[in-house]
Amino acid sequence: MNGNAATASAETSHASATSASLWQRSRRWVLPLVGIAILGLLLSHAHKVDWAGAWHALQRYSPWLLLGVLGLATASHALYGCFDLIGRRHTHHVLPRWRTWAIAVTSYAFNLNLGSLVGGIAMRARLYARAGLDEATVAQIVGLSLVTNWLGYGLLAGGLFAAGAIAPPSRAPIGAGALRAIGVAMILLAVAYVVACALLRGREWRWRKRRLRLPSARLALIQLALSATNWALMGSAMYLLLGQQVPYTTTLGVLLAASIVGVITPIPAGLGVLEAVYLALLSGSVKQGALMGAVLAYRALYYLLPLAGGMALYVFLERHATSHPPQGEVVTTR
After folding, report:
1. Does residue 278 register a pLDDT over 70?
2. pLDDT band at residue 258 using 50, 70 and 90 as cut-offs
3. Are 256 and 153 within 8 A, CB to CB?
4. Which residues 6+ apart lie within 8 Å of 167 measured at CB?
5. 226: closest CA among 74, 79, 128, 108?
6. 125: Cβ–Cβ under 8 A, 6 or more apart, which residues?
7. CB contact at 8 A, 35 and 266
8. pLDDT confidence of 174, banded at 50, 70, 90?
9. d(CA 206, CA 23)
10. Residue 122, CA distances (Å) to 26, 145, 225, 240 in order
11. Neighbours of 178 (CB within 10 A)
12. Most confident of 13-22, 76-85, 266-275
C-alpha cells in the first residue's frame, strides 16, 4: 500500500510539474496573443468612434479645467508615493523618506504606461537595489504597496456595489442582487484585513525562505485611507473632464471597472481598454465625441505627462545612486 501510495504521489507530482512547465512555456506566447486579439477587436471598432467629435471636445476644454485635472492627477501620483512609506515603516529600513517616495512615484508612472512587471516590480527592484536594500525587504515593500492599492479599491468598489450605486447592464450575466452581495463581500475582506492585522500582529510566516508578517492595525487603517483617497482623486479627475454630466458615483464606478479590466488585459497602459469600457458603459449618458474627448484628456493628463516626470525622476535617482553608493546594510528590521 505504501509503495502504491508513493508511486501515485510521485505520478501526481510529476503531472503537476509537467503542467506547470507547460504553462511557463506557453504563457510567453499565450498572453501576448490574447492581448493582440483584444487590441485587434478594439481597433476593428475604431472606425465607429466619433473622432471628430472627440477632437472638438478636447478643444472646448478651458485651460483652467485642464490645469485643475492635472492638479488632481499630480496629487494622486504624489499620494501613491506614500504607499512605499508604509513599507518603510513596516520593514524599518532607513532609506530617506524622500528617496523612498521618489522611487514609488517613478515606478507608478512606468507601471501605468508599461505594465506592472516593468514599473511596479522591475523598476522598484532596480532602484531599491541601487539604494542598498536587500531582496527580501524590497519584496515586502512591493507586496504592501500592492495590498494598499487594492484594499482601497475593494473598499470603494464594494461600497458602490453594496449601495446599488452601480447598476449592471441589462444583458449582464450578473444581477443587481448578486452585485450587492459581491460588494458586501469586498467590504468584509477589507475589514477582515484590518482585524487580522490587529489580532496577528507580531506573528511571522515563512514562505520560500522569506519572512512574512502583517503590519499593525494602525498601518492597515492608513493603507485603507490613502488608497481610497487615491482612487477617489482619480474618479474626481474624470468627473470634471466629463463636465459633471454623469453622477460622481457612476463615474468612479466605471473607472474602477476599467481599471480591473486593464489589469487582467496584457496590454501596456491598458491601451484602448479604458476607452472601450467607458464607451460600453456611458455611451447612453454622454455623447460619444464628448466621452472620447474626456477619456483621451484623462489618458494624457494622468498617464503620459506623469511618465515624463517619472523619466526625469528616474534619471535623477540613477545619478544619485551612482554618486552616493550605499555604505553597508541600510535595513534595520525589528
Report:
1. yes
2. confident
3. yes
4. 176
5. 79
6. 135, 138, 142
7. yes
8. low
9. 26
10. 22, 14, 27, 34
11. 13
12. 76-85
The backbone torsions φ and ψ at residue 292, rounded to the nearest 5 degrees and listed phi first, read -65, -35
The closest of 250, 248, 270, 249 to 261, measured between CA atoms, is 270
278, 291 in Cβ contact below 8 A?
A: yes
Predicted TM-score (pTM) of the model is 0.80
Summarize the confidence of residues 273-283 as an average pLDDT.
73
Cα dihedral 113, 118, 124, 127 sign: negative
Residue 47 confidence class, pLDDT cut points 50, 70, 90: very low
Cell digits for 20?
506547470
Q: Which of 232, 164, 220, 226 is nearest to 190 (CA)?
A: 220
What are the distances in angstroms from CA 110 to CA 17, 124, 199? 34, 10, 36
| C-alpha distances out from residue 74 to 64, 142, 230, 232, Å | 15, 21, 11, 13
Residues comprising the chain, all counted: 334
Q: How many CA atoms lie within 13 A of 199 on its CB side?
A: 6
Q: Give the burial class of 177: count Cβ atoms within 10 A of its Cβ; 0-12 exposed, 13-18 middle, 19 or more buried.
A: exposed
Q: How confident is the model at residue 64 (pLDDT cuts 50, 70, 90)?
A: very high
Neighbours of 221 (CB within 10 A): 14
- For the chain, state the CA radius of gyration: 22
**Strand (E) or helix (H) holding 64:** helix 63-91
Which residue type is seen at 283? Answer: S
Which of 80, 168, 151 lies closest to 119, judged by CA?
80
Phi, psi of 269 (to 5 degrees): 65, 10
| Site of grid cell 460619444 | 288
Q: What angle do CA 301, 307, 309 make, to 5 degrees?
A: 95
Mean predicted lDDT score pLDDT of the chain: 79
- 28 falls in which pLDDT band (50, 70, 90)? low
